[in-house]
Amino acid sequence: MKVIITSNIPVLPITLGVDLEKNGFTVQHALPDNNKEQKTVGSSVARYGSGVPQEELKRLEILLSPLTVAPLSDPNLAKDEIRLSLFLPENLDRWELTIKTDTDKLMTQLKETCIDSFGLKEDETELAVVERNELLYGSAPKEVRQLLRWFLKAKGISVVENQKFSDTDDDIYLHIRDPEADKLPARERFRVHIATDDFDLAKEFGHKLVAQGFRLGEIGAFDKDDLEKAPIGFGADWFDKGLFQSEVQELRSLLTTFSVEKGVDQNRYPVTVSDDLSAGLDAVISLPIHACL
Is the pTM of this model over 0.90? Predict the structure, then answer.
């Protein structure tokens, strides 16, 4: 079955064509014909020849979902031909996109497609723990939201839409969990950074973290002013979300045991969980050993 794809979003026929070819369609990309193509936003159509089975149209509809097109029989087309015309709002850069996700890999893919290819305007990006997949919007029409959801669906990601902002607000927020990261053990999904006043002891503790399966991040020195008030403790932005509780308990246990071994009085300097220690998606350990001896 041959499918000819036209769209006012140049990358869409290519991206969509790859997906359709994987599912057995023969795809041809074409520029919009000013005389023949339907260009009314929200009126995307799938015109089809008289010999196209309804089963194939239904299969195409499923593959296109959540993009919606109106099927239209066209006697002027070849019997086995489907001409898919997708026309979305132009000037997509009027909508400002904020992306929050939990891996560098998915962040890069989201930026390359949604911003570089689709043309949405980049607002902010953040690597952080994401509790649920959601698309928050204000004025963005359904065609724009469907385009984003279609791209995410191709990656095995479904999102819940929520009109969080007013009808005049051009913000779009994507909060997306990487399904590949969800397959990893929790302690492999974040790094543990160490701030210290003794690099040798910090490296020693870092080896203990790695031995327990944690990913060691950077080891850095305290600023002099911070050292005077820094407790022995740890923190991360996701602590207050109740996530990774097993890892939280193990970090506490490892840090307490190590401090006691080095002669730190736990009555004076107990291990604390601090809201002031964070590095985005990662955890931070405060280890001012010498200051506590």
Answer: no
